[in-house]
Every structure is written in C-alpha cells, then in structure tokens.
C-alpha cells in the first residue's frame, strides 16, 4: 500500500525545500524588509540594518593607522607655541580619525560593561522599541492623528525606558564618556608630532 510519503531523492528534495523556506528572504515582509522564514523575524527597521553597520565598521577598520605608531612615545613632544598646537590637533584628527573613533567606542563599551544598571536600561530600551515596532507592523500606530514612524517609535521607547536610565545614572555616564574621550583624544592630538609621511599618506587618501 502506498502511503504517499516522499522517499529517496524526493525526500531529500522535500527537506531542501523546507530548509529553503525556513531561511528564505525572498517573500516580502509587510514592510519590505524581510522574508517569511524564521530569520525574517530577526529583521531590523529600515536604515538600521546590520549590513550598513558592518560596512561602516569595515571602512573604519581599513583606514585605521598602526597602533604601534599611534602610541610610540618617541613621537610625542610639547608643542612650541599655540599655533603649532592648533596645527597638530587639526592634522592629527584628520590622520587618526579612525583610531580616535575606536577609542571612543571602547570607552562606551567599558562604561556599559562596568555598569550593570546601564545594561538593564539599554535592554529595556531595546525591548520596548522592538515591541512597539512589531505592533506597528500589525496595525498602524497613530498618536494625535499622526502615524508613528521609526524615529517616533525610538522616542517613545526612550520615554518608556527613561526612568530606568535615570536610576542607572546614564547622564553621569554620558558626561564621563565625553570627558574621557576629549581628554584622551585631545592629549594625543596635541602632543603627537607631525611627520612628513603622515602628510603624504593624507594627500594620497584625498586623491
């Protein structure tokens, strides 16, 4: 008696098709940002895609200057006058902007890791935004006659998580990160000597 179940190669084809359906992104998501498979549930709002962040990160990583030269103590000296100080700051920010960016990101990461309450606040914000965005896909969210777009949804999530951020001391953390960043980057840019090779590389990048 034939059971009608797929056998042999037909079974393999059927399994492949199911796997394709599971991870497929070909069928349009209601917002046009994903598919109907399981991975489609992990989509990000338009403009916040992981590919954009990865592309930005890769560009920064490629343009980064060698860290050994960046921290070489032999290339640091006190500027002779205020004019040389300003010139160093301007040129070093142009030359080492990628290095400074990673220093800034590292300080942010350190601040978040060292503050469990800040981690909880960020989790509350991310969860609130995700839930609000999911609700907006099911039906339009309208407040005071206006539909909530992604920036409005992020603002609403921020308002919901604001008490948690306040308890976590987020304001003090922001000022700490900004102060530490200005101190580290400003000190390096002011005392790092300018070299002819740095100018040559900078000119080649601009071309």
TrEMBL record:
Transmembrane segments: 102-132, 164-185
Membrane topology designation: Multi-pass membrane protein
GO-annotated cellular components: Golgi apparatus; membrane; synaptic vesicle
Keyword ATP-binding: no
Superkingdom of origin: Eukaryota
Keyword Lipid biosynthesis: no
Cellular localisation: Cytoplasmic vesicle, Secretory vesicle, Synaptic vesicle; Membrane
Keywords: Membrane, Transmembrane, Transmembrane helix
Pfam families given in the database record: PRA1
InterPro entries: Prenylated_rab_accept_PRA1
UniProt similarity note: Belongs to the PRA1 family.
Record's protein name: PRA1 family protein
Taxonomic lineage from the root: Eukaryota, Metazoa, Chordata, Craniata, Vertebrata
């Amino acid at each position: 008696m034939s059971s009608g179940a797929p056998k042999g190669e037909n079974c393999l084809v059927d399994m492949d098709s199911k796997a394709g359906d599971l991870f497929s992104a070909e069928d349009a998501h209601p917002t046009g940002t994903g598919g109907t498979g399981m991975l489609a549930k992990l989509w990000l709002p338009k403009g916040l895609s992981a590919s954009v962040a990865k592309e930005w990160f890769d560009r920064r990583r490629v343009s980064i200057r060698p860290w050994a030269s960046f921290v070489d103590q032999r290339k640091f000296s006190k500027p002779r006058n205020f004019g040389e100080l300003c010139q160093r700051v301007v040129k070093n920010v142009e030359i080492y902007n990628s290095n400074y960016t990673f220093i800034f990101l590292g300080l942010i990461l350190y601040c978040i890791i060292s503050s469990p309450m800040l981690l909880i606040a960020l989790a509350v914000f991310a969860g609130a935004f995700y839930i609000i965005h999911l609700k907006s896909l099911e039906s339009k969210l309208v407040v005071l006659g206006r539909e909530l777009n992604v920036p409005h949804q992020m603002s609403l999530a921020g308002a919901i998580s604001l008490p948690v951020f306040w308890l976590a001391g987020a304001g003090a953390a922001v000022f700490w990160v900004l102060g530490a960043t200005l101190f580290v980057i400003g000190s390096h840019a002011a005392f790092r000597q300018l070299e002819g090779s740095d100018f040559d590389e900078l000119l080649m990048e601009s071309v």
